[in-house]
């Protein structure tokens, strides 16, 4: 059996296994650019989008790191996409519709599509909370934010995908409604 030495493979290289037309791409996390987001006082995280460097179309993956005392993203759920998280190190809580649940290194957390998958990570520990987030990449998707009665609607590219490919993308209050026939010609 041939063994692949990942230390010798960079993100730009593709391996072709046994003459198959499908390419296997190996990406080292050190080769993925990290983006840091700071919003308001309590929201801060760093993200490495592995998906952006891969050829994957139906599954997404990112590595997140949340500093102590901070949280990532707003409390939310997806209508179309499922997510699966794996805690690499650190500890904290994940907010759910059933309250807060403790998470620590080695935990897997699944968030199905729909309200029962509502979640938000909060680092309550003394060291960074690092985790891998994977998801399906289904579009269109609607992301709901129960704390603020908002929704994010997107079409053309799934959450975590290339934003420039989105045809529809906007955040709206769920309570904003319009009559179906309003402003339409007679």
Question: Which terms would index this structure?
Answer:
186 residues; mainly beta; Jelly Rolls; seven-stranded antiparallel β-sheet; six-stranded antiparallel β-sheet; 0% helix; disordered N terminus
Q: How would you describe this protein?
A:
With 186 residues, this protein is mostly beta strands. The protein has a domain at 34-138: Jelly Rolls, CATH 2.60.120. It is 0% helix and 47% strand. The chain is built from no helices and 15 strands. The chain has strands at residues 14-16, 23-25, 34-39, 43-49, 59-66, 71-78, 83-89, 91-96, 99-104, 108-111, 119-122, 129-136, 141-145, 150-155, 168-173. A 7-stranded antiparallel sheet has the order 9-8-11-6-13-14-15, with no helix packed on it. The chain is globular and about 60 Å long.
Q: What percentage of amino acids are in beta strands? A: over 45%
Q: Runs with pLDDT <50, length 5+?
A: 1-18
CATH top level of the domain at 34-138? Mainly Beta
Strand line-up of the largest beta sheet: 9-8-11-6-13-14-15
Shape descriptor: globular
> Please, what is the average pLDDT?
87
CATH homologous superfamily of the domain at 34-138? Jelly Rolls
Q: Span from first to last CA?
A: 72 Å
CATH architecture of the domain at 34-138: Sandwich
> Main sheet, how many strands, which sense, barrel?
7 strands, antiparallel
Assign a percent range to the helix content. Answer: under 10%
- Which class of secondary structure composition applies to the elements? mainly beta
Give the SSE string: EEEEEEEEEEEEEEE
Radius of gyration: 19 Å
Number of helices: 0
CATH topology of the domain at 34-138: Jelly Rolls
């Amino acid at each position: 059996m041939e063994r692949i030495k990942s230390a010798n493979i960079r993100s730009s290289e593709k391996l072709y296994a046994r003459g198959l037309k499908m390419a296997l791409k190996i990406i080292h996390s050190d080769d993925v650019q990290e983006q840091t987001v700071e919003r308001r006082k309590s929201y801060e995280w760093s993200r490495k989008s592995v998906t952006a460097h891969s050829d994957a179309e139906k599954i997404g993956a990112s590595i997140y790191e949340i500093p102590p005392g901070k949280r990532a993203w707003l409390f939310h759920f997806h209508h179309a996409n499922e997510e699966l998280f794996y805690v690499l190190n650190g500890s904290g809580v994940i907010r759910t519709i059933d309250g807060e649940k403790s998470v620590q290194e080695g935990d897997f957390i699944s968030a199905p599509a729909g309200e029962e998958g509502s979640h938000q990570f909060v680092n309550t520990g003394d060291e960074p909370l690092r985790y891998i987030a994977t998801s399906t990449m289904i579009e269109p998707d609607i992301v709901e934010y129960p704390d603020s009665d908002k929704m994010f609607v997107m079409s053309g590219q799934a959450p975590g995908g290339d934003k420039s490919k989105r045809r529809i993308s906007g955040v709206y209050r769920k309570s904003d409604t319009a009559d179906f026939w309003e402003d339409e010609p007679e």
